[in-house]
Every structure is written in structure tokens, then in C-alpha cells.
Amino acid sequence: MLERRRIVELDLTGHAQVLVTLVRIEGSSYRRPGAHLLLGSNGAYAGTISGGCLESEVTRKALWMVRNGPIVERYSTMFDDTADIPYGLGCGGTVDLLLERTDTPEARALLAAMQSSLTGTESVVHTWLPTPTRPLRRAILDPTGKVLFRSESLPHEAIAHPHPAETIFTEHLEAPQRLILLGAGDDARPVASMAALLGWNIVVADGRANLARRDRFPEAHTVLTLREPRDCVQTLRIGPKDAIVLMTHSYEQDRDCLAAVLATPSNRYLGILGARHRTALLVAEAAALSGQSIAACCARIHAPIGLDLGGDGPEAIALAITAEIQAACQGKLPASRRLTPQDVAQQIERGGASRYLQVQCAAAFEVDAFDIDRAS
Fold first, then answer.
1. Fewest CB within 10 angstroms: 174, 267, 269, 294, which?
2. CA distances from 365 to 61, 253, 258, 274, 297 (A)
3. Which helix (H) or strand (E) holds 206?
4. What is the pLDDT of residue 237?
5. Are the beta carbons of 38 and 7 closer than 8 angstroms?
6. What is the spatial distance between Cα 194 and Cα 2, in angstroms, rounded to a whole number?
7. At what angle do helices 314-329 and 188-197 cross, to 10 degrees?
8. Crossing angle for the helix pair 105-117 and 2-12, nearest 10 degrees?
9. Mean pLDDT over the full length of the chain
10. Cα–Cα distance for residue pair 139/113, rounded to 1 Å
11. pLDDT tens digits, residue range 224-283?
12. Phi, psi of 303 (to 5 degrees)
């Protein structure tokens, strides 16, 4: 997603010349279909379509190759390749690249759709790949199937009923993952920084105005003060595709925010930073406030938060959290560690929440607030 942001930034400079899209792979490839490379004047470029072995060759010839219109070019990355395909590069496969000038209606529509996707407007792009006898044609649809753009030479019926002999490349321009950090302490800052490297849309919210400041989170798209933590769902428009991390270090804020989130449909990710005992108490109280069972709440919550990567300090914790969110949102998360109703009951026996109320940072009460506790 960061790649798409950089492509949009280069396009907005007005110097973009050729858009390259990886439309097919055979064998091994560093990138998957849908990867883009935007070439600008004076050697500027954004994005990648390989591990670096194709970019220089494509950059050198792209403008000349599209002089007569869009073209699909095949590149071999096989060892000792002898086929009549541009040079072997030793990566182990072949790739088909679509090259098109950026001054055509089709390219402008695709780049505009990329830009819109960054602010949450998703779309599906169908590209009829060019052949010696047929020009490139493109249709862009919103998630409901409404046509947002179609090439002048593309009939409406061809979109709904494409000819089986034509090769159509389809890509889904999804919105960036939205990460909501409920907490603006110092340990939230490296989480925001790492999420920004992935191109996510980052929201930081906290009830403390002295912490929820733009200068502390320059990578975030939104930084705001939560006047009423219990209204966080409405204020932040939290939805099922969001990833949420509770890390205010304020027991009351975490409890009220957690109760509000649990009263909504499941999110892609919901994690709580803090000691196991504190988290168990939070879950018990938030379950009661939200009208949910403890078992149902435990099934939604990632706690102890983060993959068990080892290490210490804010950056290591941020890496563990970001990695777990990435895996969860991509459907790649292995069996993760979660609290169970039995864990909650056992922790409650150790004492109530009074020790966490309006005293000091949640992490200060137990040495095992993150790393040691995560292993227990």
C-alpha cells in the first residue's frame, strides 16, 4: 500500500510518463500480479515489479516500447534461458508486463482510482489486454458493480458478458488497512511509525490532549482527543475492517473504549496492551458493560498482544504488535495466544481493579506487563 501512495505522489507531480503493471506470472516471481511501476521523467519512478532485476531494463526502454500504444511484454527470469524472450535474469520464472502511457483516458482513470482508494473508495479494475488486433480497453466498477469508467470502445454488454477469447486482467483496489491506536503514549509512536511503512491509514486517539498531538504522530492521518472514550465507536466511525489497539495505560479509558468496541460487530483485529491480570479485569468489566459474555469477548481479543518475537523496549513491542496485526488482517495468523474465560476467572481472584484506577501507568504495576507476562 505504501507503494501505491508513492505512485500517486509521483503522478500528482505531473511528470509521470509510463505505467507498468505486472499482469501474469509463471514460475517464481518476487511480486504478484497487480504490482505497479510508474515511470516519470528524468529517471524518477515509484513502485516495483520485481526484486530489482527488471526495473532498469524496463525503465530504459519503456517510453520507446509504448510509442505506438499499450503493449504486453514478456520477460524471462529463468537461469540459462534460451527462449526468444528478453534476457534471463536468474529469478526462476516469466512475467508479463503491461506498459501504457499515462496520458490516455484508461491510464488516467486507473491512476485516479488508485488515488481514491487511499481515502477509502474501493473499486474493481478490469483491463482487456491489448493484442496486435485489439487495443487496450478498461472498465472500473465500484463494489456494487456500478460502472465508474469504461473505454469509449468498450460496450456495456462486454463488461457483463466478456468474450471468452479475450484476456482480461482484474485487480481490486482496496482501501489501506486502517489502524486505530486508542492511546497516544510514547509506546504508541513506534507502532504508528511501523504501520506507516506498510502504508496503513493511522488514527491516534486519546483522552489526554497533551499526548494526542500531531507533532507526536506525524505519520498518522488523524490525531484527536477523545472527550468521551465510551463514544469512540461513533467518533472514530469504527467498522468491521478496522484494526484496533488499546494502549492508553488508563484503566478507565481502556475499559470504556473496550466496552464500546465489543458492542459492535467483530473487527479484523482487537488487541489490548498490558499485564494479564489487568486485561482480565478489563475484559470482565467491559463484557458486563457491553452485554457480552466473557467467552465471546475473549474470542475477539488478542491478549497478550503481539507475536512472541522476543526482545524488549518500545520498538520490539511495536514490531510484535504490527506483525500480529499484519498476519491477522491477511488471514495468515497461526493459533494466537488469547485469554480464556478460565484465565479471566483466575486473574480476578488475585484482586479487583482498584489498583489500576487513577494511580499511574498500567505497565508500571507488574514487571511482566508485556514480555514476561506474554510468556506466561
1. 174
2. 62, 17, 20, 10, 24
3. strand 201-206
4. 94
5. yes
6. 11
7. 50
8. 130
9. 87
10. 11
11. 999 898 899 999 999 999 999 999 999 999 999 999 999 988 899 999 998 889 999 999
12. -160, 130
